[in-house]
Input
Amino acid sequence: MDSQPSRSSGRFETSPTNITSNNFLTKSNSDTSSSSTHNTQSLASILNNPHAGKSDGFWWWSTSPSLPTPDFLPLSIVPKPGSNIRQPDFKSYLSPISDPYARFHDIQQHTRFESLDNQNDQNALVACLKEVPALYFKEDFELEDGATFKAACPFRTTAENSVMQEKLSQYLDVVELHLVREISLRSSSFFEAQGQLEDLNSKIVEGCDRIRELKETIRLLDDNLVGSARKVQELNVRRRELISLQDKLKLILYVDQALSTLNLLVASADCAGALDVIDDLQNLLDGDELAGLHCFRHVRDQLTASIDSINSILSAEFMRISIHETGDLDASITSEFKVGATISMNGEGHEVKLDEEETSNLRDRLLPFVIGLLRTAKLPAVLRIYRDTLTSDMKTAIKMAVEELLRVLGAQPMDSDFVAGERAVDADGGSSSLAGRLRSLLPESFVHLLKAVFLIVQAHLAQASQVKKAIEWILCNLDGHYAADSVAAAIALGAAASETAHETDDQVNSLLQLSAKRNSAKASSVHGKGNDGTMTSTLSRNFRADVLRENAEAVFAACDAAHGRWAKVLGVRAPIHPRLRLQEFLNIYNITQEFITATEKIGGRLGYSIRGTLQSQAKAFIDFQHESRMARMRAILDQEKWAEIDVPEEFQAIVTSLFCSESETRELADEVSADIAPSSPETFLSSDGSPMTESGLQKIARNTQHTDSVPSDSTAQINETNSRERGRSSPKLIFFRGIGYHMVNCGLILVKMLSEYIDMNNSLPGLSSEVVHRVVEILKLFNTRTCQLVLGAGAMQVSGLKSITSKHLALASQVISLTYTIIPEIKRILFLKVPETRKGLLILEVDRVAQDYKVHRDEIHSKLVQIMRERLLVHLRGLPQIVESWNRPEDSDTQPSQIARSITKEVGLLQRVLSRTLHELDVQAIFRQVVAIFHSQISEAFSHLDISSPQAKKKMYCDVQHILGCIRSLPSDSKSSPPNWGQLDEFVAKKFGEEVSQ
Output
């Protein structure tokens, strides 16, 4: 073959290639020294460890051959200043490290030669692949395959095939040469491994011989020394097993007897004994004593069934003692009402209580059942059942009592307005006839029915309250009692059972897998009560709190059920109650309030449902009463004749009792009314409020010589006639704070209505704000409508009055003044019950209404002044004609003119009317304005007259003096002298100074 074999057949043979490789390796190592600093430092730290074992050398074989390892460089020792370090000082370090370092050096040299060879030939197999075609290295290379043969021998001639055969032989030599070289490179490692394997084999053989010798020695020792002792040990083990078997058989007998006893105890309802047996059996089941006994595989199910039976017995007895013994009391209460017994609802007479002996008896009867239910952790669940049963029993008792009493009380029909169209169906299945019969009851009968229901509810709630107190006493106040330890242990057991039941979904297993907790809880409760910091104490407190909460919830649920039924009974009569009289509604309202107070005291919580029902019905009552009074007031005002009437004692008593203090009442009793002349004719207004014509006034003047005219009101005419028959005695006034007021019919009705609103406010304090709103509305209505009828002359259309006179205006002023005066007292009384949060806005409304009344009164007084001014202007317009007659020489009359007489007559008439009706201060205020108008208007009118003759001047002087005389007699608060001095006096002094002096 043409190829020459490689001259480097040995591993350590020197060749130019190797030299080049060494140079390359040296260069490569120097180039990569910086990149492999980390690995070099790791090698140095491990090799420098003198305590490393042989097993630490495996790490070097895992080093990648592609990363050449640098030569080991000795550490450079830099002597410290002042130190004297010699080589023997490192002997203790070099002696243990020399062997590992030698191994490391060999490995490093071997790796270096492999790296040199790889860098020279890059790889033996790679070199083969470069020289030998890849076809011959395929795994499925077979010349028998046609395609492979064609690919390997594509030549057709013999010469070409011979050349191909030579190449194949050459390829084989190349492969063989490289394989031999690879083997030679690894030969030293192979033989070293083979030597170590032989050493291992010899050590194994040596170990087996030593093991054989040890086994023989052990056998001899076993036969000669241990045999007898082992026999004794085996016999002892057998004895213990027999004793254990005997104990197991005794345990089986005990369990069998306990199961039989448990069945007897459950059958005889001895719950305490049965629970003790169940606790013992549960402790055995939870331990290892019965583990693997197939005969007791159903014991857990039997215990579960027994516990269910015991719980049923305890629950039934608890319910019987707690609830089912009140039926006789319901029947006795109903029978008392049937025979017409009168039951007082005042004070403490209606309260149902158990005496001390009955309470103690109830506690003693409940004690064993409560303890049993505590032990099984079923007391909270039983209390929930008790709550539902108590609620249902309460509803049934109330319904049956209502049905029984309706048969006795009878269905006495009320007004048709009360029951027309009011037919509703009972939501709980009651018939519509029951609701209809409830609506048809008279208020007194309905109150009697509520009293009976009240007593029945109190009987049930008293029993429930005693049960609640008994349970609380058992759980919390048994210190020093003989059953205190039993209750504490039962609470601990129940707490453990309840906690376990919360941690698992399987309730059956949770009742049985409790022994560890029960034992610790029982020991803790009986022997260590003071250990409140343990988990058992915490569980016990939580369990006790849960029981007490359910206990309180039961009584509250019963109270809530009673509230619901009571509210339902009231709701059936909701359309009727607003139409009742105040006292009738108050009877129902007060007994409901007593019922709410008594039941809430027992239940411990507020009953919002019944309070809402009562509040809504009270509001409906106020709304209806207010609307009826508003309609009545409108009708009364429209029919009012504005004639003065005597005030009955009833209305004076109302004002006295409501608005007057004790001192004012005594003064009022001693006060004597002044004599006031009967009413006289006064100035009339037309339908639009303007003064009447001159002809009308002349007609009035002609009638003044007889009796004064009276408005066309029959009542007023009768009062006038009676007054004349009694010797013209004054009408009876209504007094407030020592001041009398003349009244008309609508004013007295308003006072009566206001007193009724005050009664509603005092009786229904929760709705004081609503009452204040209604009082404001009726005061606004009265003020507005009165203004329309009198000032606006609306009474001429609605009441049939022919005119609106000053008498009408004065009476209206008196009514308005009285109302304005008592508004502050009304506000003071009403606002005693109003909440502070709503007082601000309500006070503003009341003050605004009071201001409206004051403005109305001032407008009436202004209207009276305006009437007098208009009459004066009408007369003054006739002065020019009178002055012409004064200038005639034939006129020798020395009397005042007709104008002066008419003016003074009308002023005198107004003075008499107002003085008899209005207060002195009001009369003075009105005539002060009238005097000012007379002075200004008359002086201005006379100053424009053309008086030429002495005769006319004398006539004018006579009229002025006549008018001044009238002005001097008018009421006034003026301090001047002479009284009512003004412009007319100045005019007289200026115009007739000499005549006056003469």
Notes: The mean pLDDT is 74. Strands lie at 684-685, 734-736, 739-741, 804-805.
